[in-house]
Write a structure and sequence with these properties.
Layout lengths: L9 H12 L7 E5 L5 H8 L4 E6 L9 E5 L7 H9 L3 E6 L9 H22 E12 L4 H11 E7 L10 E9 L4
Parallel strand pairs: 1-2, 1-4, 2-3, 4-5
Antiparallel strand pairs: 5-7, 6-7
Length: 183
Amino acid sequence: AKDAGLRSRAAFKLLELDAKFKLLKPGQRVVDLGAAPGGWTQVAVQKGAGRVVAIDLLPVEPIPGAEMLQGDFLAPEAPDRVRAALGGPADLVLSDMAANTTGHAATDHLRIMGLAEAALDFALSVLAPGGAFVCKLFQGGGEREFQALLKTHFAQVRHAKPPASRKDSAETYVVAQGFRKAE
């Protein structure tokens, strides 16, 4: 990642997901939830996104072409802050967040599923019709219910494990495209 000028190895995961699902398009509005250290934000900017807003509890070093917001995406004012920074609704919401692991697989799974559900709630509040949502999950049992929930809001829901993801890792990604805004 350093040799490629990227802030994290995770950037390669987004590049691989984009190659497979054509997620990033020039001019679109992109939100990166839990952005630190900024690898996914860098990729969105490099791929020509018109507006990129990154939000994280931790401070993130500035990235030219992106607006960095320090704060909790769960805060009641966060969706309005993000929409204002984007200048409108988002076309793509990205979440590569993971809760700190405890080493207890069932607990870790519940924690990441809780984060994924919170990220989805946020995405539903900021996405434009036709938009997309990408989120990291850990395999462990709760993905089926989450996928069913996604299918009520998106035309296509698929799972992927990018090659840059370690083979022994339980992480996987869900890619939901074709957001159907509720009336």
